[in-house]
Amino acid sequence: MRKIIAFLTIFIFASYAYGEFSLIKLGIDNNNTVLVTGGIQGDEPGGFMSANLLARGYEITSGSLYVVPNLNMPSIIKKSRGINGDMNRKFDTLSDKDPEKDIVEQIKSLVLQPNITMLINLHDGSGFYRPKYINKTMNPNRWGNIAIIDQATLEGVLYGNLEEIANKVVDKLNTKLLNTTHKYHLRNTHTSDGDKEMLKSLSYFAIKNGKAAYANEASKTLPVHERVYYHLIAVEEYLKIAGIEFKRKFELTPKGVKKALDEDLSMLVCGKFMFYSPKSRLGYIPLPSDAQIKLDCDNALVALTKNKNEYNIHYGNRIVTRFTPEFFEYSNLIDEIGISIDGNEPEFIKLGQKIMVKNSFKIIKKDGVRTNIIGYGTTREDESDIKMSKNMIKSRFSMDKSEQIYRVEFYEDSGLKDKFIGMILVEFAK
Prior knowledge:
- The strands form 7 sheets. Strands 1, 16, 18, 19, 20, 23, 25, 27 and 28 form a 9-stranded mixed β-sheet that branches. This protein has a 7-stranded mixed β-sheet with strand order 3-6-4-7-12-10-11, with helices on both faces. The chain has a 4-stranded antiparallel β-sheet with strand order 22-21-24-26, with no helix packed on it.
- It starts with a strand and ends with a strand.
- The chain has helices at 45-57, 73-77, 101-111, 162-173, 202-208, 224-241, 254-266, and strands at 4-6, 11-13, 24-27, 33-37, 58-62, 64-68, 116-125, 128-129, 138-139, 146-149, 185-188, 212-219, 245-248, 267-270, 273-276, 281-288, 295-297, 302-307, 310-315, 318-330, 336-341, 347-350, 353-357, 360-363, 369-373, 388-389, 405-412, 419-428.
- The protein folds into 2 domains: 15-263, Aminopeptidase, CATH 3.40.630.10; 332-430, Immunoglobulin-like (Sandwich).
- By secondary structure, it is of the alpha/beta class.
- 40% of the residues are buried.
- A hairpin with a 2-residue loop joins strand 18 (302-307) and strand 19.
- Residues 332-428 form the Metallo-carboxypeptidase C-terminal domain.
- Keywords: Carboxypeptidase, Hydrolase, Protease.
């Protein structure tokens, strides 16, 4: 049986100027909402990948969860702790001239929403924390694999028994260790007693404003998928304590997390475009001819940047693919096209889908629409009504590393220059 994979564009992102981050709301809003954040420091992929997988791989069946995976997307793109200084040290006083002033104020406003009752900030820290010095990797100056609180209690506040709750999370984590060296500890920074750095942090801003706040650190010594594994164990325990029920779409094991992360990376849906296990470099991609290019994507960690005459698609702090643009006006003339798959009766397929083909496909001619099968060498302007098999398409034009996926583009024939309508992807069975 052939398989049609459909995609839904959920969020709209532009080029990530300051003041932009993604807020994903899961469940049904109520007065007991947990807020999970990642990416406030752009060189901590365990934190922002965990938050993103939480947003995309979980269903909240009871309660309310807000997730911000990309608090500092410009720094994530640059693999920098903070391209304009450490954003997590800007929540006390901040000059109006600071380029991140607006986004910091937006984050503060989010935390101060009356329905937010708990903040969980996800980080990656160096080495493995130990109360006493063991070696250069395991000592009191390391921040890896700890649960952090600013003080033991926050009187009169829901979930204000900070030390008690954090210890429950630490105990849970320590039943799920992959190695005894990964042991988690509680770290109370006693911020109000004079920790000058932590006084400026997002977590302490929440504490000062009567919100329970916790941070979870995973060690930078670990591969990213293992950091995510530990972060999600911690987040799940906090959610259970807050009475928020959920379903997970993957197995919470290192192997299951790695698979979920790989699958998330392999399928990037960006408005009229789809990138499925893309090659490191693609050919010409039709972009809108207006000066302000927008990228509509269903993934908070995807961004578009320009480098001279090329564009880069980023997923977190990785460049997934590069391509050369070709500029067109955009058209919404049609949103579906007739296609015969493997000789079957034609059916209408929505643009923005990937279809699975065993042997061949044929695009049914549509008046006013020009079909361009990328990689099919022909002098014909319109490539509809051709029974197309894989051996008729040059493999170097494939979209993916396995050379199984090809794109079919559709244009409105408007006289002087075509207008780009959209595309589908065709995946040939191996």
